[in-house]
């Protein structure tokens, strides 16, 4: 029986993929909006994240908890974001958890922030970007970080870089993020990152992006003589079967069926992408309802997805269990 069932939160959603942002001024929001317009992302107005709106949506959607993540593109902003995320959890311990951001372009800064997030901020897990300032997660420089997180048996949430420039005049969050995710996951497979660090639970955003659908191609061709870093089909299977994926913007058969075939229905966790500028109440609700209606999962499997994150975050499960808010 899952942890969620033991806590009495069964059938309530636990959302591993939810974003937040620091409080900002109107001018700061306008500048961020203009920067997105410059990258071909035509949001109709500046985006503002708020605790009140988030809690309201969580209540209306039956969401017990969101595991919050945000990975700014500078170290000072990243540290400030982690600090603010920790205050949100302190203020609402049964509703929020923190996946602390790590600056994976600098191994020593990443190690220091991971230690601070764990020992000082009490983070539930960690969030990383597939390609942070040109450093992909399979880069050998990150080995000390993975070794430390492996020893802690940490959960690491992997999110693509949505700040990339447009591709063929199409905004990066539309589909380029899915290929960025696959590129990084497959590089980590070739470099045996997942095999060398079995104590880390990696959760890949957006149903794994394009990697589940392309895993069959990697199994077929990865060990051919013309491939510089050869890998067998058995090695591919052994590594990708350990990964978890979330349902953010992907609770449809076209995304879920490849994920089920690649990682299994029991390695799919609920994600909403709430808090991202591209997510509205309407799109979040369409995605949530699709989980049980698209036909890719049985009713039992869909129920398991809703609260599986609590099996990955036992401390968060305890906070929910001890709350009188739900």
UniProtKB/TrEMBL annotation:
<keyword id="KW-0378">Hydrolase</keyword>
<dbReference type="Pfam" id="PF04909">
    <property type="entry name" value="Amidohydro_2"/>
</dbReference>
<feature type="domain" description="Amidohydrolase-related">
    <location>
        <begin position="14"/>
        <end position="274"/>
    </location>
</feature>
<dbReference type="InterPro" id="IPR032465">
    <property type="entry name" value="ACMSD"/>
</dbReference>
<dbReference type="GO" id="GO:0047596">
    <property type="term" value="F:6-methylsalicylate decarboxylase activity"/>
</dbReference>
<dbReference type="GO" id="GO:0005829">
    <property type="term" value="C:cytosol"/>
</dbReference>
<dbReference type="InterPro" id="IPR032466">
    <property type="entry name" value="Metal_Hydrolase"/>
</dbReference>
<dbReference type="GO" id="GO:0046872">
    <property type="term" value="F:metal ion binding"/>
</dbReference>
<dbReference type="GO" id="GO:0016787">
    <property type="term" value="F:hydrolase activity"/>
</dbReference>
<keyword id="KW-0862">Zinc</keyword>
<protein>
    <recommendedName>
        <fullName>6-methylsalicylate decarboxylase</fullName>
        <ecNumber>4.1.1.52</ecNumber>
    </recommendedName>
</protein>
<keyword id="KW-0456">Lyase</keyword>
<dbReference type="GO" id="GO:0019748">
    <property type="term" value="P:secondary metabolic process"/>
</dbReference>
<dbReference type="InterPro" id="IPR006680">
    <property type="entry name" value="Amidohydro-rel"/>
</dbReference>
<keyword id="KW-0479">Metal-binding</keyword>
């Amino acid at each position: 029986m899952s942890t969620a069932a033991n806590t009495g939160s069964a059938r309530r959603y636990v959302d591993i993929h939810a974003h937040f942002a620091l409080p900002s001024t109107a001018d700061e929001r306008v500048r961020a909006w203009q920067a997105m317009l410059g990258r071909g992302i035509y949001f109709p107005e500046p985006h503002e994240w708020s605790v009140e709106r988030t809690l309201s949506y969580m209540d209306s959607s039956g969401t017990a908890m969101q595991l919050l993540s945000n990975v700014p593109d500078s170290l000072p902003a990243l540290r400030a974001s982690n600090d603010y995320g920790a205050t949100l959890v302190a203020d609402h311990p049964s509703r929020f958890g923190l996946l602390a951001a790590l600056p994976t372009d600098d191994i020593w800064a990443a190690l220091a922030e991971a230690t601070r997030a764990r020992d000082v901020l009490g983070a539930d897990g960690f969030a990383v970007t597939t390609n942070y300032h040109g450093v992909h997660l399979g880069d050998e420089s990150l080995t000390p970080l993975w070794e430390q997180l492996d020893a802690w048996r940490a959960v690491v949430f992997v999110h693509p870089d949505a700040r990339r420039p447009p591709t063929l005049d199409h905004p990066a969050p539309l589909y380029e993020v899915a290929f960025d995710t696959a590129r990084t996951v497959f590089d980590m497979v070739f470099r045996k990152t997942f095999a060398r660090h079995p104590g880390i639970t990696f959760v890949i955003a957006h149903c794994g992006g394009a990697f589940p659908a392309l895993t069959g191609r990697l199994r077929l061709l990865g060990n051919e003589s013309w491939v510089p870093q050869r890998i067998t089909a058995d090695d591919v299977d052994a590594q990708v079967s350990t990964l978890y994926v979330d349902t953010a913007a992907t609770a449809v058969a076209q995304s879920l069926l490849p994920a089920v075939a690649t990682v299994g229905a029991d390695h799919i966790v609920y994600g909403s992408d709430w808090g991202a500028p591209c997510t509205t109440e309407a799109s979040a609700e369409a995605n949530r309802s699709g989980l049980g209606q698209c036909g890719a999962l049985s009713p039992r499997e869909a129920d398991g997805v809703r609260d599986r994150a609590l099996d990955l975050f036992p401390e968060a499960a305890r906070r929910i269990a001890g709350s009188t808010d739900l």
